[in-house]
Amino acid sequence: MSARQKPEAIAGRVATPSGIEVPVVVTHDMAGAPDPALPGAYPFTRGIFADGYRGRPWTIRQYSGFGSAEESNQRYRFLLEQGQTGLSVALDLPTQCGYDPDHPMARPEVGKVGVSLFSLSEMETLFEGIDLGAISTSFTINGTAAIIYAMYLAAADKQGVPREKLTGTIQNDILKEYVARGTWIFPVRPSLRLIADSVLYSNEVTPRFNAISIAGAHVRDAGCTAVEEMAYTLANGLAYVDELIRRGGDVAKFARRLSFFFYVHMDLFEEACKFRAGRRLWARLLRERYGVTDEKALHFRFGVVCGGSSLIAAQPYNNIVRVAIENLAAVLGGAQSIFTCAYDEAFQIPTEFSAEIALRTQQIVQHESGVAATVDPLGGSYYVEWLTERMESGMREVMRDIDAYGGVVKAIEDGWLQRRIAVRAKEKKDATDRGERVVVGQNRYRRAAQADSYGEVFRLDPQIAARVREKHAGVKRRRDAARAAKALDALGAAAATDSENLMPLLVECCHAYATVGEMVERLKRCWGEFQEPVRL
Amino acid sequence: MSALAKPPLAGKRILVAKPGLDGHDAGAKVIALALRDAGAEVIYTGLRKSPEFIVRVALDEDVAAVGLSILSGSHQVLAGEVLDGLRAAGAGDIPVFVGGSIPPQDRAALLSAGVKGVFTNDTPLERMIDELARALA
Q1: With an 8 Å Cβ cutoff, is B48 touching chain A?
Q2: Is residue A517 assigned to a domain?
Q3: Residue A294 belongs to a domain with what CATH number?
Q4: Which of A342, A416, B31, B83 could form an SS bridge with A350, CB 3.0 to 4.6 Å?
């Protein structure tokens, strides 16, 4: 390399993906004073625990699930045997959208992107031979989160595990579903009620369980920047806090169980600083707006996923390197749990081979890289402190825009937020097409005769959907029909009231082997369905 | 493009649709915006539409082309049902394009089922517009 080559030319760009212009060098007078607070002390810039990962390493939590409960149970046992420390359940789209496997809309999707959990029978099978009192389970579930949580409680009851021993997370973040992920069912207001029901119930019944994981990952993958990802997520978080307070919740208590979930993309420092900035901004917002002082309630606990849309189909093995860098960013940012995507994840359900590499990536970062030895090893770096501050003020600015519009619920009901994200996605695509955003192997360093193949292909057993439908019919045939009907009637009646907590009724429906589709149908009768604002 | 040149898809009415339960709509919206920039009149269905619904809208709105965005892995079935529906209604000449998460090895099967073109997220928008303009010329 010639000594005359300019740094810009080497880096290829001089702004972060969020558009923050990066100086050639950050000096001590630009950086501002680093936060003097120690890790574990407000505002937690350097982390929520005084001893970082030395006290407790992050949870390695790989997302998986496919086909029927039997197949997924096999994969879970494999992952646990390989040293995975938490389970993360992927559910199929019919379960996520509230359709039984025999519904016409469900037909081509049964068991496709996750496991079908149409009733308690499937939850029991899913965890056969796995002690629910000894593992922590995370469910990526939103529209039907309260139902799946009820089903998990019922499964624990069946195993004889006391409910207060249960640990895990349900995503249960409906607001971002309206904006990006699309598995909404009911209108916004009754959906918020269902979330408040499950969070308040969980605080009492399963005190170690996170009944909501407020997620930025999906809006990020839909195209917005790292700064916007955090800002939109914290805005949604505040909307849930307001709803829970309205329902009589004590913020100092329920805030202890709020958790968050984000994507990590490729810009190492921007991603690490996103978490440092978001962590202290959340603590500051809770203190400023609600006067929360309880330290644990101010803790910003989050899980992350490395990969997603940053994974590229072209030269797919390069994705292993990308995921390793993203994994590092997540650790430097202080994540509590991490999921690393397999290199083929953008296109298919990972094979056992690719899933193992993803798992080993985390183990290499954890045990070989040394980054977990001391808390917040980036703290005090001129650039990192400068960028953390810039990002925090950028986040506050985006949140002010939302407030100025009339709040996040209105912004979603009107489709305002959705349009903002679509425009961002288009900008990102245009920048990629023009080559301004470099994607190695795709728009730069592409070989003429490049075979974008990624070896072994995962194929689902094509008979799975038929088998799931058969089991579904069998469960409905064998169950105590009177008990199921009675439980569903009680659910419908309670939904018509304004504020009766629906959780105990949902748990009874699950015990009675009522199906997800039946429960959703009852609630739809009462609440109707969300009408998507389709404007571009 | 000069200010005087006619946009490549001027006067074309195009349906962008999301069949099935998949909720990832970033791609569909980017495509819709790009088609609109290229002069097309775009109708976007929104999420979770059945193949029957999509066929009906295509006929009612008399569209020149249909674009299906699918990221759930169900592209073969869903695209097939839309194609069958159009043929059954005597509108088999409306070209259908598919975009989304389509593994390279699935392309051939989609094309031989009658899909006119397959676009994934690494297809430059300009190339997609060109191909579409040629197909609709």
Answers
A1: yes
A2: no
A3: 3.20.20.240
A4: A342
Locate A54 and state its tokens.
């030395």
pLDDT tier, B65 (very low <50, low <70, confident <90, very high otherwise): very high
Q: For residue A348, what pLDDT is reported?
A: 73
Of B50, B77, B104, the CB nearest to A453: B104
ipTM attached to this prediction: 0.91
How many structural domains does chain A have?
1
The CATH architecture of the domain made up of B13-135 is 3-Layer(aba) Sandwich (3.40)
Range of the domain at A327: 56-433
Q: Which helix (H) or strand (E) holds B15?
A: strand B13-17
Low-confidence ranges of chain A (pLDDT < 50): 1-12
Q: Pick from A347, A440, A456, A460 the residue to mutate for testing the B interface (most B CBs within 10 Å).
A: A347
How far is the C-alpha of A426 from the C-alpha of A416, rounded, in Å? 16
C-alpha–C-alpha distance, residues A149 and A156, integer Å: 11
Cα distances (angstroms) measured from residue A292 to each of A213, B44, B71: 20, 45, 42
Beta-carbon separation of B73 and A113 below 8 A: yes
Which of B122, B123, B127, B128 best tests the A interface by mutation, with the highest count of A CBs <10 A? Answer: B122
pLDDT score of A1: 39
Rounded Cα distance between B113 and A474, Å, is 35
B25 touches chain A (CB under 8 A): yes
State whether A106 and B21 contact (CB < 8 Å): yes
Residue A363 included in any domain: yes
Would the CB atoms of A313 and B78 count as touching at under 8 Å?
A: no
Chain A residues with beta carbon closer than 8 angstroms to that of B44: 534, 536
Other beta carbons within 10 Å of A28: 9
- Over residues B29-64, the pLDDT tens digits come to 999 999 999 999 999 999 999 999 999 999 999 999
Nearest to A277 by CA among A341, A229, A322, A316: A229
Query: CA of A66, closest CA in chain B: separation in Å?
Result: 12
pLDDT at res. A452: 59
Decide: residue B133, CB within 10 A, 0-12 exposed, 13-18 middle, 19+ buried. middle
Sheet holding A258-264, edge to edge: A59-60, A337-340, A301-306, A258-264, A212-215
Q: Using an 8 Å Cβ cutoff, are A134 and A174 in contact?
A: no
Which residue did the predictor score with more confidence, A81 or B12? B12
A502 and A159 Cβ atoms separated by less than 8 Å: no
